[in-house]
Amino acid sequence: MIVLKRRWKDLQKDKILSYLGFATRARKAVSGEFSVEKSIKQRKAKLVIVSEEASQNTRKKFTDMCEFRKIPLYFFGTGEELGRACGKDFRISMAVEDEGLAGAAARELSQQ
What range(s) does the Ribosomal protein eL8/eL30/eS12/Gadd45 domain occupy (predicted)? Predict the structure, then answer.
């Protein structure tokens, strides 16, 4: 039973990362601290994902910005996983700008 649960979590994680990759290929996602911050301030971001490895300062900055603008924020994955999902080396933050893809990813993230 433990092996089955571990596989299920891996499948959920892969599904979330594939949504992020799909959003990137559709040019509906931005990555990197500066680009994500710009997207949030312009109110284009529908979902923000910050790596679990992010520093406390980065976490607080994105938490405050997203709470103020009522944008869903999740802490998920490592910097390498987020970077691989968007085709880059290493990313600490990502924002999805498409409402449909953001909703699908948020549903999966809330189940985890």
Answer: 15-100
